Amino acid sequence: MKTHVTTTINGEEVEFLCEPHETLLDALRNHVGLTGTKEGCGSGDCGACSVTVDGELVCSCLVLAPEAEGKSIGTIEGIADHDKLHVIQEKFLEHAALQCGICTPGLIVSTKALLEENPNPTEEEARYYLAGNLCRCTGYDKIIRAVLDAAETMKGAA
Amino acid sequence: MAVVEYQSPTSVEEAISFLTSSPHAAKVLAGGTDLIIQSKGKYDEPLTVVDIKGIASMVDAELTDDGLKLGPAMSCARLTARDDIKAVYPGLVEAAYLIGSTQVQGRASVGGNLCNSSPAGDTGPALIANRAICVIQGPNGTREVPVEEFTTGVGQNVLEKGDILVQLKFPRPAARTSDAYLRFIPRTEMDIAVAGAGVSITLDGDGTCTDARVGIGAVAPTALLVDAAAQALIGTKLDDAALAAAAQAATDASSPITDRRGTIEYRRHVVGVLVKRAALIAAERAKGA
After folding, report:
1. Which residues numbered 74-103 in A keep a CB inside 8 Å of some CB on B?
2. Which domains can be identified in chain A, with CATH numbers?
3. pTM metric for this prediction
4. What is the ipTM score, two decimals?
5. CA distance A6 to A10
6. In this structure, how many other beta carbons lie within 10 angstroms of the beta carbon of residue A33?
7. Of A4, A29, B13, B160, which is most buried, counting CB atoms within 10 Å of its CB?
8. Does the beta-carbon distance from A53 to B77 stay under 8 Å?
């Protein structure tokens, strides 16, 4: 039996129908049409599907779609302000902090959560916080440089 | 298992009724970091999930002069953000902080970790060290079980059909008491314990250990309370001989397996080292508690 879910995604009310076994990741990609959130491992290990649920950073592959009822979801599509990229996105481009790009949406969502929680992270804190976001291309160095540069820039702007 | 029904009750009684009235298997959904993975891919058996996170008492924590009442489904992220709880039970919060990534901590919970009953669960030794009591509510009423008696085997525990772990109760530690949890993994982050140890230490005014609790994990089918290790520490100033005796007691109590994370010999040795080191950290903290 399909479940009817009413939720808020990136500030907009959204309704969808889903099977009870589907995950929030399935719902975002297949029912809501938001394909920016990527499926990597499907078991909570890689972080490619990172989203926020009521402000908490989670793997959307480990959330059942019906759990989204009444919640506020944040995805990669909500990071930029229409066609104006977020500082974090600009810094990822500037530092070439991506190659194939599959991990990038998750990393950007996670970085935003990190900088909201800790606007001034040390490199070690950033690396620990982002340890659940795996990248198999870059070796992480450019990613961490982008994250720390974004933090610097956002502090300056605040 | 395939999830065919999702329920989100707003009271414990309603949740129990969903669990007992389901025509097929029914399980409690807390953070889902184990359950959702277990339910994926094997579509042989229908499953009802009963999401308890809509019940306020399951996701709240209350710290008073009497101790801590922890909602078992409170996420590790919310728990580790509670500085007041961390100040009183630092080892418990350390254990919660070691479960998976930031994303996993956003969902995973202490109660879920306990109910999943993996031998390598990080919270087991810390719960034992902190004298946690499991409050279980089911169709026949409410009962309390000391945490060291909760898990009965690999993936097995005392919960029966319709039972829900509704609270973890911790006594307020005595003056000059603190705890620590250490685990060993071969990398720095995001791995499953090779061995773990939670130790609570109480000191008197001149630094003599007057009480201790030692819990060990990942070295037996369940986390274990090791009374002999605690007895080796009590009455001493945690000198080298006492620490060595406590480590030996932990090694003797362990009965690990060899797997790709470590051998029997290695685990038996490492769990003793962890007990020793955790005892010293707990004692250092106890001086200021």
Report:
1. none
2. 3-78 (3.10.20.30), 87-157 (1.10.150.120)
3. 0.96
4. 0.95
5. 13
6. 10
7. A29
8. no
The domains located in chain B, with CATH, are 2-52 (3.30.43.10), 67-171 (3.30.465.10), 177-287 (3.30.390.50)
Residue B168: what are its φ and ψ, rounded to 5°? Answer: -110, 120
Instruction: Find where tokens 């605690």 sit.
Output: B230
A37 at B interface, C-beta within 8 A: no
Q: Do A110 and B103 touch (CB under 8 A)?
A: yes
CA distances, A80 to each of A76, A83, A88, A109, A112 (Å): 8, 7, 9, 11, 11
Ordered per-residue pLDDT tens for chain B, 289 residues: 789 999 999 999 999 999 999 999 999 999 999 999 999 866 678 999 999 999 999 999 999 999 999 999 999 999 999 999 999 999 999 999 999 999 999 999 999 999 999 999 999 999 999 999 999 999 999 999 999 999 999 999 999 999 999 999 999 999 999 999 999 998 877 889 999 999 999 999 999 999 999 999 999 999 999 999 999 999 999 999 999 999 999 999 999 999 988 999 999 999 999 999 999 999 999 998 8
Coil, helix or strand for B133? strand
* A66 close contact with B: CB closer than 8 A: yes
Q: Does any CB of chain A come closer than 8 Å to the CB of residue B24?
A: no
User: Looking at CA atoms only, how far is residue A76 from chain B in angstroms?
Assistant: 15
Instruction: With CB atoms and an 8 Å threshold, state whether B6 touches A23.
Output: no
Interface of B with A in 86-105 (CB under 8 A): 100-104
Label residue B23 exposed, middle or buried (CB < 10 Å: 0-12, 13-18, 19+).
Answer: exposed
